[in-house]
Here is the input.
Amino acid sequence: MTAKLLDVKGIETQFKTPEGLIYAVNGVSFSLNDGEIVGIVGESGCGKSVTMLSVLRLIDSPPGNIVAGTAHFEGNDLLQMNKEEIRKVRGAQISMIFQDSMTALNPLLTIGRQITEPLETHMNMSKSQAKKRAIELLSLVGIPDAKDRIGEYPHQFSGGMRQRAMIAMALACDPKILIADEPTTALDVTIQAQIIELVKRLRDEIGMAVIWITHDLGIIANLAQRVIVMYGGYFIEEAPVKELYKNPQHPYTIGLLGSLPRMDEDQPKRLISIDGLPPILSEKPTFCPFAYRCTHVMDRCWQENPTLQPINSTHRVACWIDPQTGRER
Amino acid sequence: MANDENILLRVENLVKHFSVTYGNLLKRQRGVIHAVDGVSFELHKGETFGLVGESGCGKSTTGRTLLQLYKPTSGSVYFQDIDITKLKREELRSVRRKMQMIFQDPYACLNPRMTVGEIVSDPLWVYNEGSSRKEIEEEVRHLLELVQLSPSMVSRYPHEFSGGQRQRIGVARALALQPELVVCDEPISALDVSIQAQIVNLLEDLQQQFDLTYLFIAHDLSMVRHICDRVASMYLGVIVELADRNEFYHHPLHPYTKALLSAVPIPDPFVEEKRRRIILEGEVPSPMNPPSGCQFHTRCPIAQKICGEVRPKLVEHASGHFVACHFPSD
Here is the structure.
C-alpha cells in the first residue's frame, strides 16, 4: 500500500458552551492521496468545517477541544506536534482558504504584504524575491495588473478578486494540500465558475491535493473525484463522485439529491423535501442521528448508531437499511 | 394591451437612481448609482415571474421600487391599470395591501421583540380596523396552519425558531391581507438545501390555493427554472433577456444569459463531464459609471464596434422572447 498524503483517524471534537457540551465531530476518518480532489458535503452545522479546522489545529481551545484522533501528514501526527512544528506545516505545506475573504484578510496590510509574509517566514526569501514571487502568484490566479495592485488594500478589491488574492496567499509556499472551506459561497455564479476553473488548473499545474468543503452538490459534481457526505458530526457516506450520484445509498444523500432542482430539467417535478430540522449536537447520539428525519426508519435505527461500512470496494455508507428494498442490509 | 385582463402588473420604463453624496453639512453629489435603468415587463395573473442576475444587477431594487418602497426616479407601475407611482399616500395604502413582500434574511425581517402572533396579526390590525380581537386571533391561527406551523407557537419569539420556520412566519405575514401579488426577494437563499425544498413546495402550494402571482427574485438559476413560468435576466440595471421558462433555458439568445446559464453547476457528474463552460472575463463594472452603449460590451465575447456606441433595445426576437442585443444568436 502506498502511503497516504494525509491520513485522518477517529477525530472527535467538542465545544464547551454554557448550555453544555456540543458534540461537533464524532470520530471521523478519511485519507487523501497525492493530487486528489475530495469534496466534503453537508448542511450548516454538520461539522464539515470543524473537521478540517481540527486537522489543522485551528480550533480555539477553550471552548473547543479535540478529544481523540490522529492526523498523519507525511508520517507525522499533526495533532501531536508542538506549536512550532504545526506552524511550519500550516501555510507552507497545508494551507486553507475561507468563505469570507473580507474577514480572512487583514484589512490593515496590503495584499502584497499578506502574500510576501509567508514567503519570508517559510521559504526564507528576501524582501525583493518575495515581492517578485507575489506578483507572479497574483498573475497566476488571474489578477490583472498585478504589479500595480500589489500595493492595494483588501477593501480595494472586489469579492472575487479578494478570493483570488486569498488563493494566491494560500499557494505562496507550494502547499501539498489546499483546504477550501466554501470559498465560492459568497460569490456570483460566473465568478464561482472562474474560481473553480482556477483551482482545477492549479491542481493540474502544481499537483496539489484539494479538500473542498461545501453544501453545494452541484459544485462537487464537476470538481471532486471522491465525495464524503456529513451529517450531525458523522461521515455517513463516502464514494467516488459518479458512484455517489448514480447510486446514493444513505437516505439523507438520496433526499439531498432529490431536494435539488436541476437546471437541465424541462418538466419540474415536486422537490423532495427532507422534513424536520438538522440535529442539535448537544448529546452524543446512541442511535442514528438521521433517524428523526428518515422515511425508512426502523427499530434498529433507534437502538444502534450505524458505522461506515463498505458496500463495495470504493463505496462506504453508515445506514442499517438498503434503500432499494427498504429492509435491513 | 394595457387593458388585457390577464395582466396584473405592468412596469414601464422604471428607473431608480441613488445619488451618492459626500460631506456632512453641505452635501455634494459625487455620483449617481444607476441601480435600475429603464426596466419594462408585465406580470400575468397567477404566474411566477423570475428575475435573475448577479448581485448588484438591480433585481432587488426593481422589486422594491415597483412596490413603491423606493420612490422611482421615473417610469410607471400599473397595478390593475392604476398607475401607482402617481398615487397619494392614502390611496397607495389601499393598493399596497394587495402587494406583499417576502424577504431574503429571515433573521433580519422579523422584529425580535414581537411574538409570532403579534408579527402575523400586525397587518390585520393595521388594515381591518373593524375586526374584533377574537376574529383576529382566529385568523392568525389559520395563517400559521397554512404555513405548517403549530398555532400553539403564537406567543413565542423569533429567536426560538430555525431559519426555515422564520421564513414560514414571513410567508404567513405576507399572506395575512390576502394579497394578489407577492414579491419574493431571494426567499430561500439564506436557508439550508434540505430546507429550501420545504419552502419552495410551500410557496407552490399556496400559489395554487390562493391564485397568487409571484415575482421571484433570485440568483439560483436552477431553482428559478423549477418554480418560474417566465424568466428575465438583468445586467447592470437593465433587462437583457425575457422569455418563457423553457425557451429561456433552451434557447438563450443574449451572450450574458448564455454565460450565466453555463456557469450554473448541475448536480450530476455525468452531465457535467460533457458541459462546456463560457467563462466570462473580468467583473461587473460599477453601476456608478456604467459602460456606454450596451452595458455588457466590456465583458461580451462577441462584442463589436457598435456595441460600445449604441445601447440595444429590448425587442421581441421570437414570440414572447425578448432580447436586448445587437447580435442575438441561438
Observations:
- Residues 7-22+29-98+179-323 of chain B form a domain with the Rossmann fold fold (CATH 3.40.50.300).
- The two ends of chain B are 28 Å apart (CA to CA).
- Residues 73 and 219 of chain B are 25 Å apart (CA to CA).
- Chain B has a mean pLDDT of 90.
